Amino acid sequence: MQSLHLSSLPAFEQPFLTISTILISVFSLLLLLLLFFFVLQQWCHQVDKRRLPPGSMGWPYIGETLKLYTEHPNTFFFTRRKRYGDIFKSHILGCPCVMISSPEAAKNVLVNQAHLFKPTYPPSKEKMIGPQAIFFHQGDYHLKLKKLIQSSFAPSVVKGSVSAIEEIVLNFLPTWENHALICTLQEMKKYAFEVAMISAFGNNLEPEMEGIKHLYQILEKGYNSMPMNFPGTLFNKAMKARKQLNEALRRLIEKRRGNRKSHNDGGLLGFLMSAQEQKLNNLSDSQISDNIIGVIFAAHDTTATVLTWLLKNLIDNPHVLQSVTTEQEGIQRKLVEENRGLTWDDTRQMNLTSRVIQETLRIASILSFTFREAVEDVEFEGYIIPKGWKVLPLFRTIHHSADFFPQPEKFDPSRFEVTPRPHTYMPFGNGLHSCPGSELAKLEMLIFLHHFTTTYRWKVIGDEDGIEYGPFLVPKGGLPIEVRRRKCKP
Q1: What gap in Å lies between CA 291 and CA 271, rounded to an integer?
Q2: Binding site for heme, residues?
Q3: What percent of the chain clears pLDDT 90, i.e. is strictly above it?
Q4: Binding positions
Q5: CB within 8 A of 294, min separation 6: which ones?
Q6: For a Cys-Cys bond, which of 17, 69, 134, 278 suits 145, CB 3.0-4.6 Å?
Q7: Whether residue 263 has pLDDT greater than 70
């Protein structure tokens, strides 16, 4: 039997068949849509009976992700808080979530009931950093690592890095001269990366560091790319670099293990290897590698972003810049008289500059929120948070609340002359998973500002005063500036 082709039909029957096919297709699509919305309605009805917080889940799958990343975060969070209250539901990055914006609720999630809310990240990020990094764990393994990492970043240890960080600054800043345009964010990433390397490996870096730096930079380029592991994609290149990085770190650990003196070179690697040899933990070399890479990630982008906002806030507030410069000039005169470099004690005298950093951390709120995941159905503030839902303490909303910081959009370092109310100021997180490297981050900012404000002046190029994500919230274009030496120095 011959098959029937459209061309073999009489001309008057061809349109009829085409219309019939279209109608059947449309009808089938409508049935599928009705079935989808029926299932969605049943799901919503079932969930509603469990007393979810008020809020909007947005579009199916997409949720409110596009709104989050196209609106100013203050607008996104404050609009919903005003409409729904301090606790509300949403759907972002493919996940149903509950957002909380009161200090008390944030404390409960991050401190009081931390065992019910585990840290969580997208699987692609875990693969890239390393699944054994401290960020992805809780319980005994996390506590063991936390103690070791805190020891490595304790003030008694960090103070020994002052001269090394100052040397980085003194070598770094002259490279900004004679350039018509500087992208502040990109330059700050270079500076923060150098500091992160000495914090991870110590002050005396081996020749292998150049190769490790190169592999890390490939890894970083793929960190915020779409997780498509196909040849040629940034993600694929990053995963290959991650494998090579693991091997390079393994060889470095073996080399240091054969040279006991290198354990004393400092850095987190030295601490972890010493603890390993003294049998203070059961860490494998792979676990050590994951946590070294994790520390570099944590110390890199966030610090660079804060430094970028610092320069913007200072140029936008000339009276604050002048006050900071005056404070730093006083310290500089002392250094010249005594013919020496900066010390830890000098940085403890930078009171006004420290308050400028505190206010920048508050108003910029680099970490707008953090992710946690309910490990079981949790009754919370009169609502149910279902198991598997993400929970987001909104640091930015708390930092920008007039209840805790009057005139919150005003840049006012003097507000930190008084200690903020507990759990209202959390630039480095809170609880067991707070950032252990906060002292190092503040130190590298202070040392940078000392030399930059006493030696240089800068102006922003262009008149666009916007923001963008890179990956954290930054001034538009990464803050393009022109830098020049000051005409006179004290």
Answers
A1: 12
A2: 435
A3: 54
A4: 435
A5: 129, 130, 133, 134, 135
A6: 134
A7: no
